Amino acid sequence: MKNTNTSTTKPKNKLANILTIFAIIILVSLVFLSYQFKNSFLPKAQEVAPIDESCDLREDSCTTIFSKGEDISFSISPKNLPLLKPLSLTVKSRDIQIENVEINLVGMNMDMGPNHTSLKKIAKNHYVGSTIIPMCSESKMEWEARVFIKTKNGSYMAPFKFFTQK
Question: Whole-model pTM above 0.85?
Answer without folding.
Answer: no
